[in-house]
Design brief:
There is one protein chain. By secondary structure, the chain is an alpha/beta fold. It has a domain of 172 residues. It has seven helices and nine strands; from the N terminus they run βαββαβαβαβαβαβαβ. It has a nine-stranded parallel beta sheet, with helices on one face. The termini are far apart.
Length: 258
């Protein structure tokens, strides 16, 4: 392929939107990308029509990996390769894994699956983590990779009961609080008392985006707690605040913070 595109070896940050490429072509492309000498970041997006799922296990030494997919069996066919790419990139700082949970079939995956190939003697120092349509799966084996986290995007969480590790968003916020992981950036569509308790436990949040949040019957209580107890904690650092509530309730009563 480099004979066709002579400057290909100069690429560092390729992005690939995969649609209906045949398997042989998809495999050829991923092999070429993995061989790029300056490769540090990679983004791949699978459409709902994607038929080929080239394994990402060939990717090594990345600092950023972004994987997005919408097809029915996206997760089952790609998670193993993603886990191998993560294990082969010990200095990875930024990880995005976005799966449309409502299109998925089969068992739901978790952080456990993404970190499954990382040696027990190795600890990642992720700073940016974006997850959508995937279970939490927090325990000692996974939380150790998140202790350097400063930015989290957590959307469309999938909750399935599993007593082996934390699977609820409430458990996530409690764990972040207990581990003293203090985010500077957060985007989520979850809203609960546990989230507000976490956000009120520290100062320094710069970017907060609450998207399509709903507190069900506690919406007014959560809104009041947010404006009265959480927002004042970050008034000296907050640069971006985005609130998109599923129901207006008291979320429209934005107070003036002295």
């Amino acid at each position: 392929m480099e004979d066709v595109v002579p400057w290909l070896h100069l690429l560092r940050l390729p992005s690939w939107s995969l649609d209906r490429e045949p398997e042989w072509l998809a495999n050829s492309i991923i092999e070429t990308i993995a061989s790029l000498p300056l490769l540090t970041e990679f983004t791949i997006k699978y459409s709902y029509r994607s038929e080929a799922y080239p394994s990402l296990h060939l990717l090594k030494n990345l600092t950023k990996l972004s994987v997005h997919g919408r097809s029915d069996d996206f997760r089952g066919k790609i998670v193993t390769g993603v886990a191998q790419a993560i294990a082969g990139s010990p200095n990875i700082k930024h990880l995005d894994f976005d799966s449309d949970a409502w299109w998925g079939r089969g068992r739901e995956h978790s952080l456990h699956d993404l970190f499954s190939n990382v040696s027990v003697d190795s600890t990642l120092k992720l700073q940016n983590l974006g997850l959508a349509g995937i279970r939490v799966g927090l325990d000692a084996r996974t939380i150790r990779h998140l202790r350097s986290l400063t930015s989290l995007q957590w959307m469309r969480n999938v909750v399935i009961q599993d007593n082996n590790y934390v699977n609820s968003t409430e458990g996530l916020w409690h764990t972040l609080k207990t581990e003293r992981i203090q985010l500077a950036e957060l985007k989520t569509d979850q809203m609960s008392d546990d989230l507000l308790q976490y956000l009120s436990s520290y100062e320094g949040l710069r970017d907060l985006r609450l998207d399509r949040i709903s507190g069900d019957n506690d919406s007014n209580h959560l809104a009041d707690t947010f404006f009265q107890e959480v927002l004042p904690r970050h008034k000296g650092s907050l640069e971006i605040l985005h609130i998109n509530a599923a129901y207006e309730d008291n979320w429209v009563s934005f107070p003036l913070i002295p």
